[in-house]
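Researcher: Good morning. I'm working through a list of sequences from a screen, and I'd like to move beyond sequence-only analysis. For each chain I'm collecting a predicted structure so we can compare shapes side by side. This is the next one on the list. No need for commentary yet; just the structure.
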Amino acid sequence: VQLVESGGGLVQSGGSLRLSCAASGFTFSSAAMSWYRQAPGKERELVAHISSAGGSTNYADSVKGRFIISRDNAKNTVYLQMNSLKPEDTAVYYCRALAWWGQGTQVTVSS
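Model: Good morning. Structure tokens for this chain:
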């Protein structure tokens, strides 16, 4: 199983980024997918979750209305569109499928 995140970087407050997570080694279309994040000195927290078919999504209160999780089962990829970014969104963002995690991608939001 491989989960490879990409799309992180440095952005100014108010900006946008789109993260991608390319999955392989399991039946992607049957698996719910999640994005988590971990800021320095803090615990890893759930950011967004999407059902296997994409019909159901859930978000942390801190990102509701700003982030959108989506997936393309034909491309075995899950996305996280992040808008109106804030400095407190700075963290390493991880993709998760069942018990598997990606290596993470750094998102830094400058004020």
